[in-house]
Design a protein that fits this description.
Chain lengths: 289, 279
């Protein structure tokens, strides 16, 4: 599903002394089937943006459209529930939301709320458990006896069981070790591709944004600071640093290399191996001179 | 001679009498004014080490000695004066109604005089760049800000051993770097033993020594530089290798004759520059 924000402003507690503008005049577009990475500091408006994607917040000004659903102050959705069944949100530390006696019951809770028949729920659980990398034997266990990584997978399975078209991930790898982080991101990437999802990934990790995103949106103080492909965004090293954001390490190194050697190696999402070969040629060039 | 502040002697630990051993026969020593990073995948036993260090848990086998005192039921209160700990989730360690109350809490428990408290509150909050937030209520702070206050609260009681148990995991990269620089400089000023339990590779690079945990055992104990040479073995136990080590490896593969294993960009560039200007 396409997602479009058109001049969206959101004010918390409007017309009170506590009024606070969290998002101001924000416009962007996410093409159906693509991955958008949203990057920004705490307080940059990321969480408010997420809340607009499934109608937890409705714009104070402007319009949000998600597929055929439109959200604006004059156009409240009659069926918010339907939108929420199409947009799955994996919140930060989703394992904190587990509550049922067994893993199977916990995963079933979401689809039950959307009136999915029992037989269909069971079918989906069978399908999702291997997709999130869990053994079927886990289904009858208590979610609270599992490891942190397993609990997170169960929580994610609960979101996937609703079969959303849009997947919103709020720092999905926070608190996991490097292997766990890679496994979870690879899992989402595979699901994204296989099920033709539209994915919004909120992250602090420039490396993940570089690796997985089609486009990157950088927020600063509630407004759009930058938008583009990873190559376009990470070229703007100075601008990013002016809002205390770093570029991925490979890009940092290339820029230091240029300063030292006077040789620019443009960043084109090349692999470390390719970077090494380019450097080798520059060094060898010097030797044969 | 350097003073030994922390010692683990053949420590084994498990939760309950039937559970699997979380730590198996671990022995190591940490000295004053030394920064040791403990790394390992989730469940490798590294956080258990932290909890054993200040008597939140007691080992079934072996002994733990802090500054000459064995950790046991009788000694934990004096041990906890020596060992300051900052955990991953700042929400679980806030007690004060305002930021400055929170920093004061630990000192009040230790009977620090009022004037000294005021001085230390200013010092430690400035060190973590939270001095402008003294009168703010903790729940109004972001996660990163809370964590900075938590670090200030621990620094205020000037412990001899400071443990950061993934304490920077919830901060953004620049915030993380500032915190690490801050604790690094305080460590040297006070001759602290600093123990950072982490996944963050940059924190490992800054340490004097690294202990790598795997499945409850000490897998390796060495200098950061030596650890990162073991690229493939680290990956096998679920850990990551810094970009610079991967690039150095690829450069060698591509036929660039690097001298040493670089730890950071500057070292690698220096090495390349030497090769570059040889001709």
């Amino acid at each position: 599903m396409d997602i479009t924000f058109k001049n969206v402003t959101y004010i918390y507690q409007q017309n009170t002394p506590f009024a606070h503008k969290a998002i101001e005049d924000l416009s962007f577009h996410v093409e159906s089937g693509s991955i958008l990475a949203v990057i920004g500091h705490t307080g940059s408006g990321k969480s408010t943006l997420i809340q607009h994607l499934n109608g937890l917040s409705v714009p104070t000004e402007g319009e949000v459209s998600i597929g055929e659903y439109r959200l604006s102050k004059d156009h409240k959705l009659k069926d918010m529930k339907e939108l929420r069944s199409r947009v799955g949100v994996v919140f930060q530390y989703p394992e904190h939301q587990l509550f049922e006696e067994t893993v199977a019951k916990d995963i079933a809770f979401g689809p039950q709320n959307f009136d999915v028949p029992e037989s269909e729920i069971n079918r989906r659980i069978k399908e999702i458990i291997p997709a999130v990398g869990l053994p079927e034997s886990i289904l009858e266990r208590s979610p609270f006896d599992l490891s942190g990584g397993q609990m997170r997978r169960v929580a994610i399975a609960g979101v996937l069981a609703v079969k959303p078209d849009v997947l919103v991930l709020d720092e999905p790898t926070a608190g996991l070790d490097p292997r766990g982080q890679k496994e979870i991101m690879d899992m989402f990437y595979k699901l994204h591709k296989e099920q033709g999802l539209t994915t919004v990934l909120v992250t602090h990790s420039m490396e993940d944004a570089l690796k997985y995103a089609d486009r990157i949106l950088i927020l600063n103080k509630g407004t759009k600071f930058m938008e583009g492909t990873p190559e376009e965004v990470f070229e703007q090293k100075e601008a990013l640093q002016s809002v205390q954001l770093d570029v991925p390490e490979s890009v940092q190194f290339l820029s230091k290399f240029e300063k030292r050697f006077g040789h620019a190696i443009p960043f084109q999402k090349q692999s470390v191996e390719e970077i090494a070969q380019t450097i080798q040629q520059i060094i060898k060039g010097a030797e044969s001179r | 001679m350097r003073k030994k502040l922390v010692e683990f002697r053949n420590v084994s630990f498990r939760y309950g009498d039937e559970g699997p051993w979380v730590l198996k026969n671990c022995s190591f020593e940490i000295y004053e004014n030394e920064w040791v990073a403990i790394i390992g995948h989730n469940g490798s036993g590294k956080s258990t080490i932290a909890k054993l260090l200040n008597g939140l848990l007691f080992p079934q086998e072996g002994e733990i000695i802090i500054d000459g005192k064995q950790v046991n039921e009788a000694s934990i209160w004096s041990i906890r004066k020596e060992v300051g700990m900052v955990f991953q989730n700042p929400d679980n360690q806030f007690v004060g109604a305002t930021v400055q109350d929170d920093v004061a809490f630990g000192m009040e428990n230790r009977g620090v005089p009022r004037d000294e408290m005021k001085k230390r509150i200013t010092e430690t909050l400035s060190a973590v760049r939270m001095q402008d937030y003294r009168l703010i209520e903790p729940h109004r702070l972001s996660g990163g800000q809370k964590q900075r206050v938590a670090i200030a609260s621990v620094l205020a009681i000037s412990p001899k051993v400071l443990i950061l148990d993934e304490a920077t995991a919830m901060l953004d990269p620049s915030g993380r770097k500032e915190i690490m620089d801050t604790v690094g400089s305080i460590q040297h000023l006070n001759g602290l033993s600093l123990i950072t339990i982490t996944h963050d590779l940059q924190e490992v690079v800054q340490a004097d020594r690294v202990i790598v945990m795997n499945s409850g055992e000490i897998w390796k104990e060495a200098l950061p530089r030596e650890i990162f040479r073991e690229k493939d073995a680290l990956r096998k136990i679920g850990l990551d290798v810094p970009f610079v080590a991967i690039l150095a490896d690829e450069l060698k593969q591509a036929g660039v004759n690097l001298q040493a294993a670089p730890l950071n960009h500057e070292e690698l560039l220096e090495d390349l520059w030497t090769l570059h200007s040889k001709t």
